[in-house]
Amino acid sequence: MENNVIFRVSGVGKVYGNNRVLENIGMEFHKSEIIGLIGENGAGKSTLLKIICGATGQSEGALEFAGKPYEPKSIIQANQNGVGMVFQEQSMVGNLSVAQNIYLGREKLFRKYGVINWNAMNARAKEALVRIGVNNINPKTKIRELNFASRQMVEIAKVFDAVAKEDGSPSLVLLDEPTTVLTDAEIDKLFRQMRRMAEAGNAVVFISHRLDEVIEISDRIYVMKDGRNSGMLLKKDVSEAILYERMVGRTTTGEYYQTQNQTKVKEEVVFECRNLSKFGMFKDYSFKLHKGEVLGFAGVEGSGKEDVCALICGDDDADSGEMYLEGEKVRFPSPHAALKKGIISVPKERRDEGMVEALSIYDNMIMSNYEKVKVHGIISKKKIRNDANEWLKMMGIKARRIDDKMNELSGGNAQKVVFVRAIYADPKILILNHPTRGVDVGAKEEIYSIIRDITQSGVSVILIGDTLDECIGLSSRLIVMKDGLVSAEFDCPPDSKPSQVDVVKKMM
Amino acid sequence: MSTVKTEKRIDFDTLSKNIFVISIPIVFIIFTFINPNFASWYNVKNIISSICPVLILSAGLTFVLLLGGIDLSTGALCSATCVLTGLHIAQYGNKFILLMLALGVVAGLANGFLVTILKMPSFIATLCTQSIWSCVALVCSDGSSATIPQQDRGVIAWTNVEFLGLPVLFWYTVVVFALLIFFEKKTATGKAIFAMGSNAEAARMSGVNVVAVQMTAFLLCGVASAATGVYYALTIKGSVPSIGDNLGLMGIASVAVGGTSLAGGNGSVVRTLFGCAMIVMIRQGMNVIGTDAFWQDIIYGLIVVLALVFNSDRSLTNRIVK
Q1: Which of B5, B199, B317 best probes binding to A when mutated, by most A CB atoms within 10 angstroms?
Q2: Both A224 and A370 in a single domain?
Q3: Which residues, in sequence order, are CB contacts of B277 under 8 Å at separation 6+?
């Protein structure tokens, strides 16, 4: 058994600032084995994969490959070692050919006297494709002329080729949700290929949100939750029910989410969507948002929940369908237009979309509120300073002065400034996209009470929780999305919240 | 530990951003040392008069650069309005100036349209409009300079008036400059320019009307360039189609030497005043000490490079709006 192990993860942890995302992970991948890896969003799967494929380093613990310590400094080094990953987002260059993509960064292999032998490259690319069972792709075709499924196959061929070693010693291939863009027939083909890879003595790790697929293909399944390894199951012991049970993270008490202050769902409808559709993202999406409620959107990544939010806050436009704000038909060509009607968002990527790091706290607070700090039509520095100081105190933002630059604040304090900016605008609807992302525990609680306060004052909130637990805990109602469609709706009164297992079942 | 690091970085930044405060007196003293005439009232007045038109242009340009964009068409637009004003002001009177400013509005909006609506990189868009406006200048003037005939100069006699020992156009410049400062500090658009210049995506998601803000910046830049052209026509009392040839780079240099980040988000119109004073003083100084004309351009180019090195991006404003 022991010499069957080709890759071992022992005691691996990862900490970002104050945030622990992985803790004491231990796993073993054997020769000729297909391993399934599952877990909710934020369970730490992607971080673990990034560590294994060399994209980032671990904070603690050790990795071992083929009996030797394994410390890749980059993805290329990992490839040379025999470890490769097929990323979820495709990383192909559209206007290069299939062969050029497969050997991107490794053109040296075909170089002689500084000139690349394209014929040799094309021939070897063809071999690489045939090896994974793809016969109908010409290596000279440009990537952008291929459909998504074919691109995915090219990507897989690329990784398989990059990790294959001259001496035929085993390699490890990681596939991060490779099936999302594939049809059933193509999935079959991919699975056959994965089995062939495994039979040749390699180990294949397969990550997917589709549990039935994972159960079908895997010999063993590792389950992760809350950054920990929550179990290893053999194929014969597995059922979907057991996996759901193992996957859901800890459920926190209602007190933590201050459910005693949760608003009751009122009759009054503030906002309504009817049959919103956006090609490739979601379809026939309809919902009603009541005054003062927290409406949670749940779903795995790519289920369309974020795309719906982008639409409501004016970041994107729908293909079809209608939106009504207080009975009036609306359309938002830009976030500016949405703000004018009283809809504003706290974006997911705080540093990129939420705040301007190089400007001061007060400059950030007024960014959505220039009209509010005008006196006689002129921006008043005095009013800005007064208002900003008041907000600073009211929100308990820890900063020396309101002149401090945003990049001097911690994640939690910066997020509170972003909240001030949004609340200061007196919105009717506030869209919170991962409101507690990268925020420490203390600030999380404060943000929860801010959410309770504003909903009690009548603001309606649309929430994408940072974790499922948070989404259920904060929401008055919950809409679950799956593959761009609404798969379920839950009422979440304070005393009878749906269990995470029930919700996850509708997500996957 | 981290606080110490922060303090240090701010110190270095402050130093490089404010270096002009020390360097202006130093440069002044050096030139005076080489040629005492440099400090004469006649020469100082001359420097001040030379600063005015460059200042109007570069103050307007500051807003485009604050957005992280660029406007290369300023000099050419200045040439075009100078030629048109010189040729026609005698015939149409002073209201022609308003027409020229309106032309500046149109030119600025055209640049803004190309950049915001058609999403062209501002570098390319304004390179094209630059070429258009220089051709307008050449076509209208037949490629040669002309002066306003002596007998027709009655219309513009008002430009000869002096107030407190300085020409009336200087005082107009002061007013324009004050208005631009007001725009920068006291209007929503002025504030939004800084937010957009530092992080366009965050500004957009915050509900800033990004199209309007960019349009306004280009519009102000266009009007300022047109005003500069009119200024030259009035002081030279003629039309010179090549007047703006070096002015575009000079404007950008003035803004950069003042310490405004060319990557956007950081700087001010007031800084541009100092940058402008510096650039013009060096030019004038080299004339006074009798530097060879070819050497002047070499030294001038080196100064701009040096300014950009000092001004290179060490802060967080590394997101460029094109």
Answers
A1: B199
A2: no
A3: B24, B47, B51
